[in-house]
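Record type: monomer structure entry
Structure origin: computed from sequence
Chain ID: A
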Amino acid sequence: MFLGRVTGTVVSTIQHPFYFGRRMLLVDRVNEKLEPDGRYVIAIDAVDAGAGELVLLIDEGNSARQVTGDPGGPVRAVIVGVVDEVHLGN
């Protein structure tokens, strides 16, 4: 799992049937200071996240398929939470 910030929506006119009716979002991964680290992921939105929100992602195929409920789905990353606060130790 990791944190990221939603930066946009991915639109595809031709896609695998698994993706019909599912929103795909572009998410910038963030470091411990919540700053973009230069990496990104395209993830299925399972929690109705919006642009600019800090989110929690699962980036592992089997876990992602369990969240979507499709054991054969071609998916790797899923947004599973919108983060309200992050508290870092000293």
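Annotation 1: The chain has one domain: 2-82.
Annotation 2: Strands lie at 2-10, 24-30, 36-45, 54-59, 77-82.
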